[in-house]
Amino acid sequence: MQVLFATSEAAPLVKTGGLADVSGALPAALRREGVDVRILLPGYPAVLRHLGGQPIVLAEFDVPMLGRAALLEGAMPDGVPLYVIARDDLYARDGGPYQRADGADWPDNDRRFGLLSRVAAMLSQESSPIAWRPDVLHCNDWQTGLAPLFLQLDGTRHAPTLFTIHNLAYQGIFPADSLPRTGLPWDVFRMEGVEFFGNISFLKGGLQTADRITTVSPNYAREIQHEPLGFGLQGLLSWRAKDLTGILNGIDLATWDPGTDPLIPRRYGVDSLLRKDANRSALREVMGLQAVKGVPVAGLVTRFAHQKGLDLLLACVEQALTLPMQFAILGSGEPTLEHAFRDLAARHPGRIGVRIGFDEALSHLVEAGADLFVMPSRFEPCGLNQMYSQRYGTPVVAHATGGLSDSIVDATPEAVAAGEGTGFLFHEPTPPALLAALGRAAAAFGDRRAWRRIQRSGMARDFSWDAAARRYASLYRAVTGTP
Ligand code: ADP
Ligand code: GLC
Question: Cβ(385) to ligand 2 under 6 A?
Fold first, then answer.
């Protein structure tokens, strides 16, 4: 089975969020299952640097309406084969993969991801410019949404397509006059095509035309078939329900292992949880928090975006300080939220520590050093930090939504007694509900034996990619009709 995995980010080369973690780990897990997966990425500066000064040029070819492009060949740091689209005018620029350094979207994202989609489609056709031909094209999120549509329009023999939704809130919406810049013909600008309330939606193009659709948790697969989490596409998604599957993400057990993590000062395991204290001390030091015995540190690592429910925390965090509790918060994103959190830290020195920025190493220290982890997400397709946290013996306080519900077991007294409770779920995305869950966590933290049980139950859970990889592999077989 040969699979082309088209994605706009992949850790450790380029990462803005969970899509990169998935793209960095799932292909390797699939290869362990015997699937020949190869990654297709745009040639951003970090990707070109990784390929080195003299990359292998596999092919140069014309892309209809989008000019000439070259395909480079290399490998991810873990050895997964990698194809890179070289188009310096579109990808080789400083800043993020989607945005300028100041946070504004690149004005030519229609062309940039139109090209990614088109090349993914070309490599999946019989007329591909390279010899290796996938049996399945696996697309991820709106940036690759037009690929299945290009294949359908072309009409020649091509690989079947699987489309994974990592987040339905990002749809790749552009004004109608973008159409020629994406390389699509005007006749797809209809309701059954890419038209979406007068604009173009890359995501809708993919969801209409992919052979199979997956999303990153079973619960989210149900939620997106209804208002409000369908974000306008609930009708289309429920119409396609028989082709839609939820597969819970795994985590990269090598990168996220408290027993071997090189980014934390003191490594530990399920039988050496006392050593976690040294990480708490280091985290307090970095975040400027007071060293007070018996007060738990609540950690957050997050994009500052509406999705993540940070306004709920802002509304109740001062009351939470009296539980008592300290906060160690790492994040970046919307300027108003960055401002609000900076302000909060300034008002509560020693009790709330905030670091604005994207800091991989510090994110590991928060997982290891915090006593509990907070995820008040309004919605969360899967979420990865709750799984990292459980593995790091850091129970999670979370809104029961999407993949958070699928991966956290609420620590009711019965669940704790049964050795199953791993976190504290709340059901309404409101500040009082969050505060109550923080209160439950603080009370449990005070009960040493119960707390250790919750930590150990979380650490014992299997969040490896193997189960998910097997499910993707069986979908690949289903979509190609392979027994
Ligand atoms: P999303 O993709 O919606 O942001 P996920 O939970 O799936 O949510 O994945 C987020 C990933 O990005 C995690 O690996 C998390 O640790 C990381 N991350 C988010 N914000 C930061 C930050 N400020 N610094 C370092 N890592 C971050
Ligand atoms: C998205 C979602 C997140 C998910 C990630 C990887 O960014 O917001 O919940 O974990 O994709 O699938």
Answer: no
Q: Would 2-250+465-480 and 273-459 be classified into the same CATH topology? A: yes
Residue 384's nearest CA partner among 104, 15, 8, 22 is 22
Ligand 2 centroid to Cα of residue 464, in Å, is 16
CATH 3.40.50.2000 assigned to domain 273-459? The reply is yes
CA distances from 29 to 78, 218, 466 (A): 11, 20, 6
Ligand nearest to the CA of 249: 2
Between helices 448-459 and 431-446, what is the axis angle to 10°? 110
Ligand 1, CB within 6 Å, residue ranges: 17-18, 21, 301-303, 330-332, 358-360, 363, 382-385
**Rounded to the nearest whole angstrom, what is the distance from the C-alpha of residue 140 to the centroid of ligand 2?**
11
**Domain range summary for the chain, segments of one domain joined by +:** 2-250+465-480, 273-459
CATH architecture assigned to 2-250+465-480 = 3-Layer(aba) Sandwich (3.40)
**pLDDT tens digit string along 360-408?**
999 999 999 999 999 999 999 999 999 999 999 999 999 999 999 999 9
